[in-house]
Amino acid sequence: INDPFISTTYMEYMLEYDTVHGKFGGSLSHDEKHIFVNGKPIRVFNEMNPENIKWGEEQVQYVVESTGAFKTIETASAHMKNGVEKVVISAPSSDAPMFVMGVNHELYEKNMHVVSNASCTTNCLAPLAKVVNDKFGIKEGLMTTVHAVTATQKTVDGPSKKDWRGGRGACFNIIPSSTGAAKAVGKVIPSLNGKLTGMSFRVPTADVSVVDLTARLVNPASYDEIKAAIKSASENEMKGILGYTEKAVVSSDFIGDSHSSIFDASAG
C-alpha cells in the first residue's frame, strides 16, 4: 500500500472502524512500515511520486492506481520504473485501454501494460446496456444516476471552482452533476458509441448508487422479456458481475455487495 498522507497507526484505525461497513472483524496491528491484517504483513510506503515507490522490494507485479491523480498511460507508467509489470487505473482514462468485467474484458491483450477499469457508474451501466443491446438492440438511451456522496464533496457550503453546485453542502442537497459514464459505455461497447447520454444527481446517502436507464429499442420488447434476458445473463455469462433481484429492497440492502450491477426488477 502507498499512502503519502497517513501513518500506519492511523491506517490501522481507519481499517478497524468504518462508518458504512462497521467494525473490522479480524485482527489488526502495525509497526512503522507495515500493517498486519489477520497476521499477514502488508508493506506500507509513503511516497507522493509513483516512481519513488519501491515496489520492487516487495516483488509487486500489479498495482491498482486509485489516487485519481495519475490517470494517463504516461503518469501511471511511473509505477513500472520499480519492477511493476501491470497498472490498473481505477478511473476513466483519456488514453489507456478501458475494460469493464463481463462486457469487454476478453479484448485485453498481454501487451497492454496500463489499463483503465472505468468508473463505478460505468461498471454499473455497461453490463445492463450490453445485455439489452445484445438481445434487443438500443437505438438511443438516457441514463440518470442517483449517486451517493463522494469524498470530493463539501460537508458544508464551500468554494468549488470546477462546479459551483458541487460546492454546496452534500448532507443537505440533491445536487445535479455531470457524468461521463454514458459516453464511456461507448468505449467499451463500440456499437453504442454516441447513442447514450446521461446526467447525475448527488444525494445525501453514504453508500450505494442507482442507475436508471431509459432506452428506445431496435426490436420492441415487453418488460417481462427484458427482465427474463437480464435474469438469464445474471445466472450464466455474467454471474457474479450482474445481479438480479425481485425483492422489495432499498439502497442500504446492497452495502457490501460485490456485484458490479444489480438489476432491481420490481422497481420497473
UniProtKB/TrEMBL annotation:
<dbReference type="InterPro" id="IPR036291">
    <property type="entry name" value="NAD(P)-bd_dom_sf"/>
</dbReference>
<dbReference type="InterPro" id="IPR020830">
    <property type="entry name" value="GlycerAld_3-P_DH_AS"/>
</dbReference>
<dbReference type="GO" id="GO:0006096">
    <property type="term" value="P:glycolytic process"/>
</dbReference>
<dbReference type="InterPro" id="IPR020829">
    <property type="entry name" value="GlycerAld_3-P_DH_cat"/>
</dbReference>
<protein>
    <recommendedName>
        <fullName>glyceraldehyde-3-phosphate dehydrogenase (phosphorylating)</fullName>
        <ecNumber>1.2.1.12</ecNumber>
    </recommendedName>
</protein>
<comment type="pathway">
    <text>Carbohydrate degradation; glycolysis; pyruvate from D-glyceraldehyde 3-phosphate: step 1/5.</text>
</comment>
<comment type="similarity">
    <text>Belongs to the glyceraldehyde-3-phosphate dehydrogenase family.</text>
</comment>
<feature type="domain" description="Glyceraldehyde 3-phosphate dehydrogenase NAD(P) binding">
    <location>
        <begin position="1"/>
        <end position="120"/>
    </location>
</feature>
<dbReference type="InterPro" id="IPR020828">
    <property type="entry name" value="GlycerAld_3-P_DH_NAD(P)-bd"/>
</dbReference>
<dbReference type="GO" id="GO:0004365">
    <property type="term" value="F:glyceraldehyde-3-phosphate dehydrogenase (NAD+) (phosphorylating) activity"/>
</dbReference>
<comment type="subunit">
    <text>Homotetramer.</text>
</comment>
<dbReference type="GO" id="GO:0051287">
    <property type="term" value="F:NAD binding"/>
</dbReference>
<dbReference type="InterPro" id="IPR020831">
    <property type="entry name" value="GlycerAld/Erythrose_P_DH"/>
</dbReference>
<keyword id="KW-0324">Glycolysis</keyword>
<dbReference type="GO" id="GO:0016853">
    <property type="term" value="F:isomerase activity"/>
</dbReference>
<keyword id="KW-0560">Oxidoreductase</keyword>
<dbReference type="Pfam" id="PF02800">
    <property type="entry name" value="Gp_dh_C"/>
</dbReference>
<keyword id="KW-0413">Isomerase</keyword>
<dbReference type="GO" id="GO:0005829">
    <property type="term" value="C:cytosol"/>
</dbReference>
<keyword id="KW-0520">NAD</keyword>
<dbReference type="Pfam" id="PF00044">
    <property type="entry name" value="Gp_dh_N"/>
</dbReference>
